[in-house]
Amino acid sequence: MLVENRKKHVGEIPTSSMADIAFLLLVFFLVTTTIDMDKGLGIVLPAEGQETEVSKKNITNILINAQNKVMIDKEIVDVSAIKPLIKQKITANDKLIVSLKTAPQTSYETYLKVVDQLKLANATRISIANQ
């Protein structure tokens, strides 16, 4: 009787197509992944040169100074008081334009709080004044 030496076959994982599979997975995830873009403030800016004269009685000025204090028509108010004041002014004058002006040192957080209060007061005509 002849006894033959048999080698035990060890199972192997075929790795020749691993690179192809990894590449296909990479392409799949790159194509199907969406990247969220920052929306920012939803403000529609007019085209350059569209300037119209507005009556002073239709304008309410909001100023934010360097210490983040808010003034509405030369009266210092709290940020939470902006909504009722502007809502009252809009009901009295439906053509009201809110002019918002800030100092260069004003914090962005305060600016956003004021804009949020204006949106809550349904102020649709907001003019952002520049220096």
With helices defined by DSSP (H or I, 4 residues minimum), what is the helix count?
3
Mean of all residue-level pLDDT scores:
83
What would CATH call the class of the domain at 56-128?
Alpha Beta
- Radius of gyration of CA atoms, rounded to a whole number: 32 Å
> Helix-strand pattern, N to C?
HEEEHEHE
Task: Give a description of the structure.
A hairpin with a 5-residue loop joins strand 1 (59-64) and strand 2 (70-72). The chain is built from three helices and five strands, in the order αβββαβαβ. It has a five-stranded mixed beta sheet, covered by helices on one side. By secondary structure, the protein is of the alpha/beta class.
Q: What is the element layout, followed by pairings?
A:
Elements: H1 18-32, E1 59-64, E2 70-72, E3 75-77, H2 82-92, E4 97-102, H3 108-120, E5 126-128
Parallel strand pairs: 1-4, 4-5
Antiparallel strand pairs: 1-2, 2-3
What are the defining features of this structure?
Nucleotidyltransferase, domain 5, single chain, 5-stranded mixed β-sheet, 5 strands, alpha/beta, 131 residues
Quick gist of this model?
With 131 residues, the chain is of the alpha/beta class. 30% of the residues lie in helices and 16% in strands.
